[in-house]
Amino acid sequence: MAKFYFKSSKKEENYVVPSRKTIDFLLSYSKALKVTNCSGLKFETILN
Questions:
Q1: Which of 1, 21, 26, 41 has the highest CB neighbour count under 10 A?
Q2: CA distances for 43 relative to 2, 28, 38, 39, angstroms
Q3: Cross-strand pairs, 17
Q4: What is the pLDDT of residue 10?
């Protein structure tokens, strides 16, 4: 029974590595995103 609950310490090496293009897109998007609070409402605006 103990084998069913045992977690292996072997590390998974199937990580997904994002491309430079994806990272640049996410960074530019986060820089252009502006969130404005007005009377309890949130407005999201893209400044591009």
A1: 26
A2: 53, 19, 8, 11
A3: none
A4: 63
Answer yes or no: pTM beyond 0.70: no
> Is 36 in contact with 43 (CB distance < 8 Å)?
yes
**Cβ of 42: how many Cβ atoms within 10 Å?**
8
Return the H-helix or E-strand segment holding 30.
helix 20-32
- Which residues of the chain form beta strands (DSSP E)? 33-38, 41-46
Q: Which two tokens stand for residue 23?
A: 């990272």
- Contact predicate 44/29, CB 8 Å: no
pLDDT digits (tens, 9 = 90+) for 1-48: 555 665 666 666 778 888 999 999 999 988 999 999 999 999 999 887
In residues, how long is the chain? Answer: 48
